[in-house]
Amino acid sequence: MAELRYNPLLDDWTMVSANRSKRPDMPKDYCPFCPDSGKVPVDYDVYCYDNDFPILSQNPPEPDQVGSAFYKTAPSYGKCEVILYSPDHYGNLKDLSSSHMKKLVHLWKERYETLSQDPKIKYVFPFENRGKEVGVTMPHPHGQIYAYSKMPLRLRIELENAMTYFEENGENIYDRILQEEIEYKERIVTENNTFSAFVPFFGEYPYGIYIFPKKSLLSFSDFEEKEIGDFANILKEVTTIYDGLFDKVFPYMMGIYNAPTSHSGYKDLYQYFRFHVKFFPPLRGENSIKYNASSETAAWVHGNPRKVEDCAKELREVREKLYG
Hints:
Order of helices and strands: EEEEEHEEHHEEEHEHEEEHH
Number of strands: 14
Oligomer: single chain
């Protein structure tokens, strides 16, 4: 059974898949993502791997007959892919060469463009979960892509707010956020010609870095070789800084936010949207977790236990130590 179930309280959809609970535990000495597994090519740099236990499918089953006119169900249409960063089981983004990183960005771009062509897909979301603190059990370096047939609620809220801001102020809210951060300077962690990485003024997580473009980029489709190289470099630098902060593998959840697909119904996106990346790291200190508890989960009201300016300073000092 796999289906989408409508939440009338939030005008949102929940992905339900009982089969995912039946996923087997992998033997400790076996990894399907390693070149000798028989599941992936013997020789690869980066690779797109269809998820073995997808919660979304382009050939979804019919929903169970458990709904009603009020409790609506829908087929769990979409796509779930795994993006393998490297054949090295213990590698990390920070360990990849610049040329290897660019291959990864090229793959993200190709998958975004291919999945966006499906007329049923509204949003294509590349993301990564890293570290045991966020529940990762497969250390092989990888991320995932979910292609949704329903617009995610967080994205709908953000897009609607961005549209309203543009209508009321005549400027792009992402551009304004970046302008504020550049003018204040103290929350900037690193930057290059195309991108700036900063801990935002309103950050929910102490070390939560955002990466914004300095030009009008909507999605990977707007990336030429210059943007691909600069994005690869700043992503490598940010993850290197993270690991250097406490001299250990730094856990995070990373979301890569492209524009919705042309099938989503959103228009004039250049006016109010920008491609960007958000990191959600669960650490508030070297050995301290910032948990999402009742306020965060039940009321969507985040409490940041650290002053983000202090955290940005710590990250900037790591950058200066590593890069001079």
